[in-house]
Amino acid sequence: MSEKACIKCHIITETKECPICNGREFTDKFTGVAIIFNPEKSEIAKELKTERKGAYALRIRK
Length: 62
Ligand SMILES: [Zn+2]
Fold this sequence. Notes:
By secondary structure, this protein is mainly β. It is 10% helix and 34% strand. The protein has one helix at 43-48; strands at 4-6, 12-13, 26-27, 30-36, 54-60. Strands 2-1-3 form a three-stranded antiparallel sheet, with no helix packed on it. Strands 4-5 form a two-stranded antiparallel ribbon. It starts with a strand and ends with a strand. Bound molecules: zinc ion.
């Protein structure tokens, strides 16, 4: 099974729907992965505008 990143939230997931935005548009064309453990304290979380723990794609190629 391949990991995909939501094109909106950048979260990496293997589910059919994005756990954050419920979107169904994913891409496997992403580079860099950031694991966010403390969304309140994470600069990356701020940049990605997320409050959820998880693995995120840093850059999504379009
Ligand atoms: Zn999403």
